[in-house]
Amino acid sequence: MTKPSLRKLESDLRVNKTTLHNWKKNRPELFEFIIESYKDRELLKQNLNYMIKQKKVIEEEIIITQERVY
Question: Tens digit of pLDDT for each residue in 34-44?
Answer without folding.
Answer: 988 888 888 89
